[in-house]
Amino acid sequence: MAKGRPDYSPTAVDVVLRPEWAAKQGTDKSFYTYKTDAAAMTGVASTYTVPAGKTLYLVSVSVLSNAYDSADAEKNQMVEADLVELVGATCLWQQGGNGGMHAAFPTPIVLSAGQQLSMTVSNFSNHVSSISITVLGYEI
User: Fold this and answer.
1) What is the pTM of this model?
2) Which tens digit of pLDDT belongs to each residue from 7-29?
3) Which homologous superfamily does the CATH classification assign to the domain defined by 22-139?
4) How many whole angstroms separate alpha carbon 109 and alpha carbon 94?
């Protein structure tokens, strides 16, 4: 039985998704914001401005919330997260959950040069929690 490519050719061409290609080319982006001791009804945010001549594509977001004190570990770990474009005051994504959540965007969220991305995660539990948000994408 023959091995290798189906057409037995000595050359190969790979087809990869853009996020994979961005990782190979070093144009992938990873944003991480956290607060280890967020009081109830507080949060943390960070912003990123897309540089001139670039376009930012967001492909996924992950959020985590867990009790800061072990005595609160069995309680609900309610959290809310938002991605907002600040220049146009546009909500791009918003979700709540218990303990965390993840969203993958089959069609990336696109931000053009000069637009500002705000990434916010808020503790909606009734105790101090550790909260974080991670946003992944690429910029070309």
Assistant:
1) 0.83
2) 666 666 667 666 677 666 777 89
3) GOLD domain (2.60.120.680)
4) 13
